[in-house]
Amino acid sequence: MSPFWLSLWVASIALVIVILSGLAVCYWMNRCKWGGGIAILDALITLPLVLPPVVVGFALLMVFTPGYAFGAWLEAHGMSVVFAASGAVIASSVIAFPLFYQTVRSALQSVDHNMEDVARTLGASELRIFFTISVPLAWKGILTGSILAFCRAMGEFGATILIAGNIPRVTRTMPLAIYSYVEAGQYMDAFELVIYICVLTLALLSGIHLITKGSLFRHTDNN
After folding, report:
1. Which of 100, 111, 187, 220 would suit a FRET pair with 3, their CA atoms being 20 to 30 Å apart?
2. What pTM, to 2 d.p., does this model score?
3. What pLDDT digit, counting tens, does each position of 186-198 carry?
């Protein structure tokens, strides 16, 4: 069960990182006035979603490996990312971030902007408008993005195996364990983990679907 609990831990930490950074980026992007530059920046943010995960993992490896400047600085300060659990968290966060960002940004853009304008006339700051009006009205989109990001983080394989490796009880998450079991011919052990992933994901989606009364992916309906 070590890969199961490790996957939950990695995905949970990655989700917290994704939500905090994703809301911050969405707030900035929705209020940025860069014109055509926004489209380029939006494409760069979404890039990990369309690139092969192994390419993202290689890029992270180049950033965090001790052989380069930033990685050497981290190592000098006692922080290790390569072949460590923190590497798995970073890989999962980077891969899951675009899913959360695109879903939440779309939900925020569908919010009734007249309500935001009324708050501005009453003297509310942009930050207060965002967290007291925009975010509550877009809660379905935020919930949807969070679920998608968590599931994507839990299923991350390509980037994780490059930067974090496949170390038992350290970085071997469920996808990596399934790969190892299949490679070793232990198909029943692999099948058991596949069942765990499927049941957990289905339970999560079904539970949230019930909470939102069947409107999980219809975040544009704010009624």
Report:
1. 100
2. 0.88
3. 999 999 999 999 9
